[in-house]
């Protein structure tokens, strides 16, 4: 869903930029790319927020059941600890053989639907969706913006020739070895492997 939304928003933005450029120039142009760092980050953040909202809403019933199972297990452990302190409670609280006090997911789902209805299964869905939209949008938007920023810096540096090494470099002139440093003015001896 995220990739589909991102592709749709990028294509929509590209068409809008192409339409604006064609209106200014008065003719058909080449393919226009959406390449602004903040523009890409904003599109990615919006796509992630929408996809995250949908995913959080759909999975809320599973989270409700999981939370209820965890709460029941915590209550069971607390009751077991308090019953262990009392000899009378410990002797009278035994369950019959073959029964367990743990609740299964299916049993809890049926119980929630019976007592609270479908609204009980989606309890907290709005808050969960909003939180997921904020978190997903912020995380993936910052990631995409940072990735494009670093790619642009690398591309600019590569085109400028600052870091890229020449293909046909003469390595015989490179001074490597043991001795005083170049900053001290002396020539550094070559290592045996350089010869």
UniProtKB/TrEMBL annotation:
This is Mitochondrial carrier protein. Gene3D superfamilies: Mitochondrial carrier domain (1.50.40.10). It is a multi-pass membrane protein. It is found in: Membrane. The keyword Transcription does not apply. Belongs to the mitochondrial carrier (TC 2.A.29) family. Residues 77-101 are annotated as: Disordered. Keywords: Membrane, Mitochondrion, Mitochondrion inner membrane, Repeat, Transmembrane, Transmembrane helix, Transport. Residues 82-101 have a biased composition (Polar residues). GO terms for cellular component: membrane. Solcar repeats lie at residues 39-149. The lineage of its organism: Eukaryota, Fungi, Dikarya, Ascomycota, Pezizomycotina.
């Amino acid at each position: 869903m995220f990739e589909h939304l991102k592709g749709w928003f990028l294509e929509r933005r590209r068409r809008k930029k192409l339409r604006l450029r064609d209106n200014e120039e008065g003719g058909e142009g080449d393919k226009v790319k959406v390449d602004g760092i903040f523009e890409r980050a904003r599109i990615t953040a919006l796509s992630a927020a929408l996809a995250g909202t949908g995913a959080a809403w759909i999975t809320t019933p599973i989270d409700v059941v999981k939370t209820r199972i965890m709460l029941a297990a915590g209550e069971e452990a607390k009751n077991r600890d308090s019953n262990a302190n009392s000899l009378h409670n410990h002797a009278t609280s035994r369950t019959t053989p073959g029964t367990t006090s743990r609740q299964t997911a299916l049993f809890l789902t049926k119980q929630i639907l019976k007592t609270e209805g479908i609204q009980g299964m989606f309890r907290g869905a709005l808050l969960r969706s909003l939180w997921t939209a904020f978190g997903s949008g912020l995380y993936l938007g910052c990631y995409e913006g940072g990735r494009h920023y670093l790619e642009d810096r690398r591309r600019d540096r590569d085109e400028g020739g600052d870091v890229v090494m020449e293909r046909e470099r003469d390595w015989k002139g490179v001074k490597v070895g043991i001795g005083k440093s170049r900053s001290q003015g002396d020539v550094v001896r070559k290592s045996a492997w350089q010869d």
